[in-house]
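Question thread 4412

I'm putting together a teaching handout and wanted feedback from people who do this every day. The idea is simple: show students a protein as raw sequence, then show them the structure tokens that encode its fold, then repeat with a second protein so they can compare. Below is the first pair exactly as I plan to print it.
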Amino acid sequence: MPEGGTSIPNTAASPSAGGLPDTAPAAAGGGGRTATPEHRGTPAARRTSLLVTLLLGGLTATPPLAMDMYLPALPEVTRSLHAPAATIQLTLTACLAGMAFGQLVVGPMSDRWGRRRPLLIGLAVYIVATALCAFAPTVELLVACRLAQGLAGSAGIVIARAVARDLYDGMAMARFFSTLMLISGVAPIVAPLIGGQVLRITDWRGVFVVLTVLGLLLTAVVWAKLPETLPPAERHGGGVGEALGSMRRLLADRAFSGYMLVGGFAFASLFAYVAASPFVVQEIYGASPQTFSLLFGLNSIGLMIMGQVNGRILVGRVRLDTVLGIGLAVVVVAAVVLLLMSLGVFGEVGLVPVAAALFVLMSAMGITLPNTQTLALMRTRHAAGSASALLGATGFLVGAIASPLVGIAGEDTAVPMAVVQLVAALVALGCFLGMCRPWNGRTGGKGGGV
């Protein structure tokens, strides 16, 4: 594969650089040159930085697109393939499981062979799997194709985080993850809206056709414009044994494992909402696919706004652990309110109070998820691909387990969704307090070194 012409070295960046490090010394064999201050300030340098940031945001948006464009069609898929809701929700579980296990493979691969090659291969397979989803005649084949889609799509998630770690450190990394959340947060807003509009002119299979086209466009831009950020001199030469050893060392760090589990169970609470909300909003409260799409988009806007509050206001002024603790507490409170409403404690409630509680829960994710990832990645100076793989795999694996649980009692109650969200949030909070020990300043954003 071509290496994109240039190589960006692994060095900390200033948040004002917009996506590139302050200096760019030549990588071993990369043919680059040292960037002078004058060169850093040129419009060409700023455009390149912005393009890299947008591409990484696009890669992190791949999972929301694959998941959320499909959500308004879930009730239709149950009728089209003559399968119960719990079985159709396995298509979400398969995609999540694929994204989880795929990251464990792609992450170490990117540490050994660089970021571009595994990414481009993964995107190519993702396109093929997504196209096959559009023609799946049975629910079993659709589940299999969604598994392949998740396995291949994981490349974009894990490598985008690894590239961010290549470029940034400390508070700059926290701000950059908040910026990525702003970009990738557009996907959950527009994806259900696009899916709802696609369903006006075609059936659920047309959603996968649109996803295939978007995958082709993203792959073309990545091929042409995304540079290699891991110079050959910094790549790992070992095989499977070295990759497993690197992961074992990361897991041995209590704080890293704690943040990994916090992020995983926070994702479980989020994906319980993703899996159950189409049925809760449309089947229980009688909303149309378009209304569901609008509500889903509003929740994503809340997540984006809080992500920007985190990156632009809180980071650098408040300890990351403090912000993370506040976010987890809000998620727990929102989940408790949802459970009480679902059980009828407040009497008969309509869609508006339920939607408001979901909005608060999703908004809190905007300060929970980026800080979890930042605090975990600050624990490792090497093997960013393996660290990113463990973070992503944990989140998607726990999410894959949580997704089918929300439909265990059928389509006529929101109680399972609220229970799964509350349990996941409480476990995340327990891991944060018991393993990360936020009162200990040495785990609160000092970047410890694994």
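The second pair follows. I'd like the answer to focus on this one:
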Amino acid sequence: MDASFSPEQDEIRRTLRELLHSRCGPRELRTALDTPAGHDPGLWTALAEQLGLPGLALPEAYGGVGCSATELALACEETGRALAPSPLLATAVLAAPLIAALGTDAQRAELLPRLASGKLTAALAVPGTALAAALALTGDNGGDWAGGGRAGGVQARRAEDGWRLYGQVDQVLDGHSAGLLLVAAHAGGFARSRTLLFLVPGDAAGVVRVRQTALDATRPQGRVQLRYVDADLLGDEDGREVLPALASVGDTAAAVLACEAVGAADRALERTVEYVGQREQFGRTIGSFQAVKHRLADAYVQVQAARSAAYYAAWAATPQRGAGNCATSHDEPADAGRHIAAPPAERLALAQSLEALRTAAAEAIQLHGGIGFTWEHEAHLYFKRAAGDELLFGPVHRLRAHAADAARLFDTQEVAV
């Protein structure tokens, strides 16, 4: 198997990097963060119309590009380098795959083309701080995270003409601005409690949304209150496929987030290397000191190791190889049509990438000296991205612990004498 990138994949990365370089520099980034939505609508339109990024991994039948999770992960590596705030993660990585997997034919036909075009954005609303649990990143997603049929979370009740939702979700990525909310709620009461997903327009009556002050401003979050809101059920009422679908989306999300973190870590390290090659102390550049070289070399090795893990996870998260317009490799094995990677691969890659980002961002702050601690410099944004992602999708030790449990790494009856 040829593990190199295809010309199409290289072109996606190159074109996206050029667009972000011209449209999402440090000044444009800060301007976008100060807007009510927390991102630049013009940039989002460019990403959608020029590159088809929202529909990159959606089937062509629904207006998508027909690529795989691999291409989406490589694209997110570039958005991670620029810390580009956009609805891409919430729309294309979390919400759209769930609609494609669980929605009825009518729901897919109505929503997926609009999501692929970028004209409609979506957000996955999971009660509390349980996004990592719902996606099965840090443990089995048994469904208790959605309320468990008890008070709290979001509750779904039957109405004469459908369903009504009541509850509150405090941390929803792009929840304050998304045109469509995909809400996880419990139905059936305590005796027959089950988790279901519901479609709610962002401007529906009874929906109250407020943008939250987040640690990482480049990932805008909103608090969503649902006050007896009319909702459409996604798929059927059985609900047996909801939790497996969320776990499957978690596989892809982990791979995409790993590549995104690697892109951010690489850029933070790159900026630090540039700076230590210019700043002088005691008559010589600080980059010439052996201690500084050692610290940067260690960070470089960590970032490159994380990149290898992230690329493998992105490849492994693709169920079908070589489908659609974007080939994932030039020479595929005979059994390439099945998911051949071990389940923990994506979680381990995400853990390694988040750790590499945290290291690279911390070194950036330290080696930039006094300016690295200032609000005006970009170093703190990379550090906050590392810390914020761990709060949302980690932490690292729990990602690794769940991967170990999934691989049954410590399940043995042997006892050391």
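Top answer:
Good format. For the second protein you could add a caption like this: The longest strand covers residues 221-233. Residues 320-324, 328-342 have pLDDT under 50 and may be disordered.
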